[in-house]
Amino acid sequence: MQLSKLYFPRKTNLPDNLDEYKTSEVVEFLGIVEYPPKMSGFFNILPLGQKVMRKLENILINSAYNFNYQEMHWPLLQREKIWKQSGRITEFGKDMIYTSQDYPGFVLSSAHEEYFTDNIARNIQSSKELPAIFFQMGYLFEKRKSRSIIRSSEFPVFSTYSLSEDEKQSKNNFKSNEEFYDQFFKGLGIKPLKIMDGETLHFVYPNQEGEHYIILKSIFEFASPSERKFSQKGLGLAMVRPLGTKYPCDFDVGIIKEGESIHPCMETSAVGLTRLLFAIVDENRTSNGIRWPDSIRPYDVAIVPRILENSDCFNYALRIYQEKIKRGESVVFDDLKHNRKKARDALGIPRSIIVGNKGNSRSIEEVLNE
Amino acid sequence: MQLSKLYFPRKTNLPDNLDEYKTSEVVEFLGIVEYPPKMSGFFNILPLGQKVMRKLENILINSAYNFNYQEMHWPLLQREKIWKQSGRITEFGKDMIYTSQDYPGFVLSSAHEEYFTDNIARNIQSSKELPAIFFQMGYLFEKRKSRSIIRSSEFPVFSTYSLSEDEKQSKNNFKSNEEFYDQFFKGLGIKPLKIMDGETLHFVYPNQEGEHYIILKSIFEFASPSERKFSQKGLGLAMVRPLGTKYPCDFDVGIIKEGESIHPCMETSAVGLTRLLFAIVDENRTSNGIRWPDSIRPYDVAIVPRILENSDCFNYALRIYQEKIKRGESVVFDDLKHNRKKARDALGIPRSIIVGNKGNSRSIEEVLNE
Predict the structure, then answer these.
(1) When comparing pLDDT for A207 and B91, which is higher?
(2) How far apart are CA A103 and CA B35, in angstroms?
(3) Using CB atoms and an 8 Å cut-off, which of residues 262-281 of chain A contact chain B?
(4) How many of the other CB atoms lie within 10 Å of CB of B73?
(5) B26 touches A at CB < 8 Å
(6) Are A134 and B47 a contacting pair at CB < 8 A?
(7) Backbone φ and ψ of B69, nearest 5°
(8) What is the pLDDT of residue B121?
(9) B4 at the A interface (CB within 8 A)?
(10) CB A293: neighbour CB atoms within 10 A?
(11) Distance CA A348, CA A55 (A)
């Protein structure tokens, strides 16, 4: 990719010191997302952000397959009547997005328990098919209007839904999910606090922009309203939750166990991908850009002809670039006219190969981003 | 994956001869998708289908990066006013899905030209940033009610949108897209007819379930209504189309070229992923299952203990299975009680390692699926 052609609206218009900005603003400066004007609640993910999102998704998907989870895809546009059957439409109703009267009876998905139970759990006949854990990489929708990737109207979510034949198997599925997220966050160098709220395990990233209030008692806990002045704030990244037999009961879904029909238990978990992206940027941002974790870094090296107008220098640099492309390396060609170092730092490219005016192997200098 | 736990509702209930069924039914028998009851227009993609979809997506994404295309993600829920600005709301209006009056002013995306122009093209300043081709792996929505993966209300689509400074660059972008799909279909062993309709290039897969009528004149062309009785039918898989300056004009988007402001040209292309899946199944289905193309095959080998109740045999087979899992092979463990060979054929597993009663290396037999 030539930096002159990379879609990165701020590349010639970067602030001098990113420390002065909130992380939900920094993600826009760095070319990860953009908030289009007059579209609060929504964002576009830009090429740099999408490269990172693809890597995050692949890590999640590969890890899920290693955990023997099965991938499903449920529709995003769901039948309202299914939501009525669980009674959750009263709980979520005012936040849910409905279709208009000329195509009535649909809602945009704000969770998948209902579809999972009515479509999948219903087709599972026997306790011998359990435990079974399913996952979906999908989108959820809510009425929201903020200008932020952590509170948007439409957001990508990795979620799991599982079935178990009894409490013991249910605890094992819960444990499996907990281990899944432990490994995942560890691999990314993110250290969320693990907080139990009732039976639900939350992974909360300490951050001023979050919605949770956290207080240290014997362990970290959510603060009650009166404790909030002593608390720190945190952002919910992921959760793991046992669901008992509620949904199988609501939808009259049973399995045969030792000759008798019983309601199976369910468990769920989820991680919000743009919240995760927020936490990764927050954790790794510097005053002039970002240092991406190795496993999700979008570009490894920039080839920089020192003087663009010097054809020896330019062509020699181009040749190095093309050879690296052929070898499958993750490389950019810096042909920007202005703010070159500043743009490379913003994009988080850790290493530059600078080609001097002579345009030969002796004029090469390798520079690491500090 | 143990076959007993794989979510594949038809595994014990497969028809004897698949030749009697249409491909849109066969995809359900083979455990690729399911059409939930009372939800016409929608389908769930099952674990087998999702494994294939992931591989198709990865081939498309990697190929797009090799072509130097940039990935973007636009919202699925879009502002109605943007669609009014291009005037296309009258063209698509009756097929588009709107949000209800308590969250008004949104439509579910049925294309991306509008957002591309208003959000991305608007931020590109100079002809020096062109040509630039962008792609999105997204979902499109229309009011549809059929029970088929080729005409659904919600469907996954890979699409490209590009900008060029003049007709010549526009033709190059078109050529690049054409080459992209040529390579892609060739790699999958799919041979669509290439049909020009005005300036639009269509990739049409000959099939009785398709919506196009095709007739051979000097080359294949779409048939006029009076020619239909001499025609064959075909299914549109992909298209490449120049858009001229319509959208930049509608949205008043200009770029600077040699000191002057001009309207850039646009081009687009798209491939429907579930239509592609349909064509792949259609091309490779047999009377008892499917032979997946190598590059997207979900499972390579099944380990089959001949007698499940024989613990020597079962445990030895399990050990082989676990070793293959450790080596990262794509393998299933066949612990089904009934219809074992039939289920393996349906899933398209080309090779079985059958472990005999003695449960040792001499009792192993390797069988290729005919």
Answers:
(1) A207
(2) 20
(3) none
(4) 18
(5) no
(6) yes
(7) -80, 150
(8) 87
(9) yes
(10) 17
(11) 15
Cβ <8 Å between A154 and B75: yes
- Out of A7, A72, A129, the one facing B44 most closely (by C-beta) is A72
- The CA-atom distances, in angstroms, between A44 and each of A52, A277, B122, B296 are 14, 14, 14, 30
* Rounded CA separation A329/B277 (Å): 31
Residues A236 and A275 sit within 8 Å (Cβ to Cβ): yes
- CA A10/CA A31 separation, integer angstroms: 7
pLDDT at A285 over 90: yes
Distance CA A351, CA A366 (A): 7
Chain A window 28-67: which residues touch B at a Cβ cutoff of 8 Å? Answer: 34, 36, 38-39, 42-47, 49-51, 53-54, 61
Mean pLDDT of A83-96: 90
What is A79-95 written as a DSSP string?
Answer: EHHHHHHHTHHHHHGGG
Which pLDDT band, with edges at 50, 70 and 90, does A370 fall under?
low
Q: What number is the ipTM of this complex?
A: 0.95
Span B211-248, pLDDT tens digits: 999 999 989 999 999 999 999 999 999 999 999 999 99
Say yes or no for a CB contact (<8 Å) between B100 and A97.
yes
Q: What is the pLDDT of residue A369?
A: 80
CB atoms within 10 A of CB B76: 21
Q: Looking at the complex, does the CB of residue B102 fall below 8 Å from at least one CB of chain A? A: yes
Residue B151: which residues within 8 A CB-CB, separation 6 or more? B144, B211
Strand partners, B163: B132, B266
Closest chain B C-alpha to A177 CA, distance in angstroms: 18
Residues of chain B with pLDDT under 50: none
Residues in chain A: 370
User: So what's the pLDDT on residue B370?
Assistant: 64
Taken in order of first residue, the domains within chain B and their CATH numbers are 32-284 (3.30.930.10), 294-368 (3.40.50.800)
Question: Distance between CA A85 and CA A246 in Å, rounded?
Answer: 11
d(CA A293, CA A275): 16
Element (H, E) at B203: strand B200-206
Which residues are registered as beta bridge partners of A160?
A135, A269
Identify the pLDDT of residue B91: 84
User: Is residue A161 within 8 angstroms of chain B, CB to CB?
Assistant: no
Provide the 8-state DSSP code for B224.
P
Interface membership of B120 toward A (CB under 8 Å)? yes
